[in-house]
Amino acid sequence: MKMKRRFGVVPVLFFTVLGSLWAGGQSGGVTPTELVWSYITWGMTPADTPKVEAAINEYLATKGLRVKLQPVGIAERTQKQTLTLSSPNEPLDLFTLWGGGELNSAYQRGQIIPLEDLIKQYGGELEREVGQTYLSVGKINGEIYGVPSLKDQAANFGFVITKEYVDKYNIDLSKVKTIHDITPILALIKQNEPDFYPFIPNSLTIPLQHDTLGNDLGVLIGDNYRVVNLYESKEYRDLAALVRSWYQAGYIRRDAATVTENNLMQVRANTGCAYFTYGKPGVEIEDAVTAAHELIMVDFHQAFTATSNVQTVMWAIPLNSKHPDKAMQLMNLLFSDPVLINLINWGIEGTHYVKKPDGTITYPPGMTAVNSPYMLNMTWQLGNQFLSHIWEGHPPNYYDTLRAFNAGAKISPAMGFFFDTSRVQAQISALTAVVEEYSMGFTTGSLDLSVLDEFNAKLKAAGLNDVIVEKQRQLDAWRSANNK
Fold first, then answer.
1. Which is higher by pLDDT, 78 or 231?
2. Fewer CB within 10 Å: N-end or C-end of the chain?
3. CB neighbours (10 Å) of residue 114?
4. What backbone phi and psi angles, to 5 degrees, belong to 33?
5. CB count, 10 Å around CB of 225?
6. Is 276 helix (H, G, I), strand (E, B) or coil?
7. DSSP letter (8 states) at residue 341
8. Contact 30, 60 (CB under 8 A)
């Protein structure tokens, strides 16, 4: 009635309200709240990111939200994120944490806010989709600080190689049963292409099926609850020796320890053709989109899951956020809204992708991975992957396969355990510096195995035993509390 009286007396007010509705994106006259949304890219910001941002904002206007996209390359992410979180006036509302170590670090520094009350008020759909079991991996001292993306929650170990080289040298991948069977493949390629370095090292721990317990500073190997030094284990030494032999044979580039491009970008640039990966059904198809080469993967063992697998990517709200309530509303959409999910990941339908008759998607005619102006290809990062379109090459029922993969994984005996680093933070900082000094040398094979003892001696001097003892203490207490 009040609206009618004003309309009758001063007609111009009607048009003022109408204009306000239009300007506000039909959001009830309320100007949408702009949120800075940071996420990871494979290393380059797609050219059409501004167009996709505009399309997202057109869609979000009806929900009273607006975003400023802040894509960050995977190689520079840590440095940029550290700077942003350390600058109170730097705008940021929603961002990703890479694993439990970053979650704990951000918590210890007071850089992220607790989410439980916000989830109860604005994250009902998120809570239903993620579930309490997975939400628990983002808890510290009983409070949720990070929400894990829904994706492959387990991993197996895989060896990936471009189909080009498999076909070129008639490589029989059915003979690859163990990691040592990779050596003849690399030797064959090197023999025929002496100036080419086929293997791209990205992490020496990928082939080791172990529970990191939040970081690799004290781990579980096998089905027991005994925390051990990973870098003193026979498994680590044997793998380091193998990669060292590859380096000495010329299968790995001499400057591998200082290369910043990730494995997919190196394949894309034709500076390598093979690498290790954490596997899941169809990971080689996903990787191929970014690598711009058709890829083939060989699995080596049963899928394995631990707290760290579920924690791979978590969403958090920084202390910097001026609109934590709106940030939670946006996070809630990441787990419940397929329109938003597909816009941010694949771009605009008809412009950046088209649907095929079987329901999967592909590039529009004339477009490829090389010339596509927008291809994020990170469904596993962006909230609820199961709401995303399926890229061609995967079967239309791919997500059923992925759910079965999660369900069939071997589960760590410490699944759900979260390590609180607060009592050994100084040691962890010192140990991290030691690991950064040595680990890439062993990952790339550029350090001789004789240096491994020196590495372990420095770890012990920096307090590794203190961390292992504290981790064992907390694990024993967790077992007792959970009747494990």
1. 231
2. N
3. 17
4. -80, 125
5. 16
6. strand
7. H
8. no
Domains of the chain, with CATH numbers? 32-151+310-344 (3.40.190.10)
What's the pLDDT at 11? 36
Query: Which residue is it, tokens 């990941």?
Result: 345
d(CA 151, CA 136): 16
Amino acid found at 16: T
For 217-247, the pLDDT digits (tens) are: 999 998 899 999 999 999 999 999 999 999 9
pLDDT, position 29: 56
Average pLDDT over residues 175-180: 92
| DSSP-derived 3-state class of residue 221 | strand
Nearest residue to 159 (alpha-carbon basis) of 181, 126, 138: 181
Mean pLDDT of the chain: 89
pTM across the whole model: 0.74
How much is the average pLDDT of 405-421?
A: 88
> Please, which pLDDT band fits residue 99 given cuts at 50, 70 and 90?
confident
Strand, helix or coil for residue 206: coil
Question: What tokens were used for 339?
Answer: 């329109």
What letter does residue 281 receive in the DSSP assignment? Answer: T
User: What is the per-residue pLDDT across 19-48, written as a single tens digit (0 to 9) for each?
Assistant: 333 344 444 457 899 999 999 998 789 999
Q: Specify whether the backbone of 36 is left (phi greater than 0), alpha (psi in -120 to 50) or beta.
A: beta
State how far the Cα of 445 lies from the Cα of 455, in Å rounded to an integer: 14
> What percent helix, strand, coil does the chain show, rounded to 5?
45, 15, 40
Here the tokens at position 126 are 């998120």
Nearest to 146 by CA among 118, 171, 187: 118
User: If DSSP codes are grouped into helix, strand and coil, which group holds residue 249?
Assistant: coil
Amino acid occupying residue 482: N
The secondary structure of residue 447, as a DSSP letter, is S
